[in-house]
Amino acid sequence: MKLHLKKYFFTDKETVIAEHGSLKATAFRYSTGVEALKVENEEGYFVILPFMGQQLWDFNFGGKDLKMITTIKEPVPDVKYLMTYGGFLYHCGINSFGAPDADHPQHGEIPNVDYQSAYLEVGCDEKGKYMTVGGTYSYDVAFVKKYDFSPECRLYEGANKVRIDVKLENKRAEPMEYMYLCHINFRPFNNAKLIYSVPRDLDHIKIHKIVPATLPEEAQKKLSGYMEALEGDLSIMDKVGNDKECYIPEICFRMSYVPDEEGRGHTMQYVEGEGACYVSHPVDALPHPVRWISRTPIEDAMGMILPATGEHLGYERAKQDGFIKYLDGFSTLEFYMEVGFITDAEAKAVAEKINKLV
Q1: Which residue of 154, 304, 331, 350 shows the fewest CB atoms closer than 10 Å?
Q2: Closest by alpha carbon to 96, among 87, 88, 107, 86?
């Protein structure tokens, strides 16, 4: 059963619009006027903005609030990217992502865009009962570019992971340039361990040694010193909150994953005895993930993996460095990611798989 969502379904009062076994979907509207849908099961919930970028604004599983900490507490419509940057997951691209320029806003046109259609689907398959929220954004510039971008978020009954499906359709006859990044913003947990299927060497992990000139001199030295320490021993960053740690304002990395037998990369922030923040992504479709970590006095973000087609430095650098992808005329690209907080036993099994890969 598919319910086509309309903005008038959403009011200041929370309203349950669907129940399916232990699954429940509740519609409401933030004080800023942005429509939101909370989808929950026994293990947790996510809050998605069906019409504003299909962003996952809140994400809570394993009894933990998993999204990053920023100064933005509610989504804000019709503003620039960083002025509504408080959510858990953003789709970024398609014309560009990363650094802004004269022709491309920061992280592209799709993060905050108004979707023309959105829906809630309730169903059952071989994995059990599920709820799926999806939608389509149609981009059309005559004689230039026409595409449909259609993401979905699916939660199964009893599941501690959400499946994120992405479909991109080229609606013109000629090949289409595209870039894509999934900006997944976990919260850091001090003393947790980062475990991921990437060898700890500079051939597989590139440190973007960017030190803002606006930082005070002492802060510049501290950030540079940590980058130098990482170059000597990349495993230092595997302990969250280590003694040398400095991510003020941020450090970005490009990661090269070793795929498993199904072509997927695996990343965890493991909290011993409790479980792990977890992401699985397709290495072929998203071959150059970015790691982004920022830990300031008022923000805290563990972007342990942002699955991506290339680096985060904008269109011109992507063109120069060969990170632009192409989708043939009238063809479709589809892939999926899994995001959640898995149990301690599940995390240990994933860690064993990762250790065999690297």
Answers
A1: 331
A2: 107
